[in-house]
UniProtKB/TrEMBL annotation:
<dbReference type="InterPro" id="IPR036425">
    <property type="entry name" value="MoaB/Mog-like_dom_sf"/>
</dbReference>
<dbReference type="InterPro" id="IPR038987">
    <property type="entry name" value="MoeA-like"/>
</dbReference>
<comment type="similarity">
    <text>Belongs to the MoeA family.</text>
</comment>
<feature type="domain" description="MoaB/Mog">
    <location>
        <begin position="198"/>
        <end position="337"/>
    </location>
</feature>
<dbReference type="InterPro" id="IPR005111">
    <property type="entry name" value="MoeA_C_domain_IV"/>
</dbReference>
<keyword id="KW-0479">Metal-binding</keyword>
<keyword id="KW-0500">Molybdenum</keyword>
<keyword id="KW-0808">Transferase</keyword>
<comment type="function">
    <text>Catalyzes the insertion of molybdate into adenylated molybdopterin with the concomitant release of AMP.</text>
</comment>
<dbReference type="InterPro" id="IPR001453">
    <property type="entry name" value="MoaB/Mog_dom"/>
</dbReference>
<protein>
    <recommendedName>
        <fullName>Molybdopterin molybdenumtransferase</fullName>
        <ecNumber>2.10.1.1</ecNumber>
    </recommendedName>
</protein>
<dbReference type="Pfam" id="PF03453">
    <property type="entry name" value="MoeA_N"/>
</dbReference>
<dbReference type="Pfam" id="PF03454">
    <property type="entry name" value="MoeA_C"/>
</dbReference>
<comment type="pathway">
    <text>Cofactor biosynthesis; molybdopterin biosynthesis.</text>
</comment>
<dbReference type="Pfam" id="PF00994">
    <property type="entry name" value="MoCF_biosynth"/>
</dbReference>
<dbReference type="InterPro" id="IPR036688">
    <property type="entry name" value="MoeA_C_domain_IV_sf"/>
</dbReference>
<dbReference type="InterPro" id="IPR036135">
    <property type="entry name" value="MoeA_linker/N_sf"/>
</dbReference>
Length: 425
């Protein structure tokens, strides 16, 4: 359990720069705790529900399979008819195909039914003999091996029992979930509405890709990065407020519009202590309460997280690598909680270092890595591309993912166990 730090209330930029640097894990916990799940629900067809967040637990209205059915092409028999030593010969009294709804009642003893995969097994018949283990002659069939009761029969409810829970509340509906729901006859589901995430970039030096650059200007890569990451989140809707110059008034106006129409506001740039860093002052002007000011991590230290009028606020650094790491590791878990997901943390995998490097103790570091092979135990062997600066992009583009260097260690040594998050995850 953690205790909230003193929140920043004064609407001035210098107030937002004070405050003790907190541990990475504490920053994640604080960010997630600030996110309050949306409540509005809607009904959607299965076809429109992929990736959406399940609003209530879903239970099966029927058993699956709903009736005993054959797992093979062959002959349905009654094991009680197998008296004495084989082989055994039965009269074939009819055939049953998938979708056959006819009743096959009152059949004489020592009779069999030609049956096909998926066809209902008639009452009283309790086994299916594969056609390869039989010999058919006209309306007679000879069976050479005594079957056990239930052989090649899929029993009603053996996969899913009527009333059993299929999908838990707070789960993002996968293709596998939707397939299961369709199999039990569910046509639509109740999901939480998409959360609206406002994106805003600040910096008078920023231009959009495709526009001409003047000396001293750079292209805005953060906007593309964040939109691309959120495009993989079907539970989110992006509202893009574009680039806002380093103007306190224009930033304050953009923040006001974003807070009025969105559930969360994610900004890039303007969160450090420079004279032209006005983002936090604009947020404070509209009542921002900041719980996270500086994080003991590299890259991503000058991160601001809090609320503006109960809306989640995340002020990311302007440097691309820092923005990427802070967003993936701290802000995205909070957005998942806001959307109603029960699983909010990234999925880390075990790996081993294929390199050595020094690091500052007491600070969690994230480094771009790629897989160079496998260890003797089969774990990915990681190659460090470069630690670089917060603004370097090539290493991230070449990386397979990010490795976490724990805060308590001062050196990463060859073959040391590490946690690894693939970018494809």
């Amino acid at each position: 359990m953690f205790h909230a730090a003193n929140r920043v209330l004064p609407a001035d930029c210098s107030a937002a720069q004070s405050g003790k640097t907190i541990a990475f894990e504490a920053a994640v916990a604080k960010a997630v705790a600030l996110a309050h799940t949306v409540r509005y629900r809607e009904h959607l067809s299965l076809a429109a529900s992929l990736g959406r967040v399940c609003a209530v637990a879903i239970h099966s209205p029927i058993a699956l399979p709903p009736f005993d059915n054959s797992a093979m092409d062959g002959f349905a028999v009654r094991t009680s008819d197998f008296n004495g030593d084989g082989p055994w010969t039965f009269r074939v009294a009819g055939r049953v195909a998938a979708g056959d709804v006819r009743a096959h009642d009152h059949l004489d003893p020592r009779t069999a039914l030609r049956i096909f995969t998926g066809a209902p097994v008639p009452a009283g018949f309790d086994a299916v003999v594969m056609q390869e283990q039989c010999e058919r002659s006209s309306d007679m069939v000879t069976v050479f091996e005594r079957p056990r009761r239930g052989r090649h029969v899929r029993l009603a409810g053996e996969d899913v029992g009527a009333g059993s829970e299929l999908v838990t509340r707070g789960k993002a509906l996968s293709a596998r979930d939707l397939t299961l729901l369709a199999a039990v006859g569910i046509a639509d589901v109740e999901v939480l509405r998409r959360i609206r995430i406002g994106l805003l970039s600040t910096g008078s030096e920023l231009k959009e890709p495709g526009e001409p650059l003047a000396h001293g200007q750079i292209y805005n890569s953060n906007r593309v990065m964040l939109r691309s990451l959120l495009a993989a989140c079907p539970w989110a809707e992006v509202v893009d407020f574009g680039i806002v110059p380093d103007s306190p008034d224009r930033l304050a106006d953009a923040v006001e519009r974003a807070v009025a129409s969105c559930d969360a506001l994610v900004t890039t740039g303007g969160v450090s202590a420079g004279e032209e860093d006005h983002m936090i002052a604009a947020a404070l002007q509209h009542g921002a309460r900041l719980d996270v000011l500086k994080v003991a991590m590299r890259p991503g230290k000058p991160l601001k997280v809090g609320t503006i009028q109960s809306k989640l606020f995340a002020g990311l650094p302007g440097n691309p690598n820092a923005a990427l790491v802070a967003f993936r590791q701290i802000i995205l878990p909070a957005l998942r909680r806001l959307a109603g997901l029960t699983e909010v943390q990234p999925h880390w995998f075990s790996a081993v270092a294929g390199f050595t490097c020094k690091k500052r103790q007491g600070r969690t570091e994230f480094a771009p890595v790629r897989i160079s092979g496998r260890s003797e135990t089969g774990e990915p062997m990681l190659e460090l591309i470069e630690r670089g600066s917060s603004a370097n992009l090539m290493a991230i583009a070449l990386a397979d993912g990010i490795a976490l260097f724990p805060a308590e260690v001062a050196e990463i040594t060859d073959s040391m166990p590490l946690r690894y998050e693939p970018f494809s995850n």
